[in-house]
Hints:
Low-confidence stretches: none
Order of helices and strands: HHHHH
Helix content: 40-55%
Distance between the termini: 38 Å
Structural class: mainly alpha
Oligomer: single chain
Number of strands: 0
Number of helices: 5
Amino acid sequence: MTITDHPLKRCVWPGIENPEYTRYHDEEWGVPITDSGRLFEKLVLESFQAGLSWLTILRKRENFRKAFVRFDAAKIATFTSKDVERLMVDAGSVR
């Protein structure tokens, strides 16, 4: 199947070889976010993406969710220097 044969209108950038990228394209990309928690998650992930591919971030998203307590802003606000140290050695996210 080629990109043009796919039943959904799809941009060329996700390709068809990578299910993570195509799922992101089909279900998330360009979809408005109204939930503040999901919006905060997207903001944090976009911040970590700087200079990296978005696919790298998508592959580490579950690790980020764990490291940042499911992006609970109130809990993150209470992080201490010990939490920062933990995050700095966490190979599951981007440091």
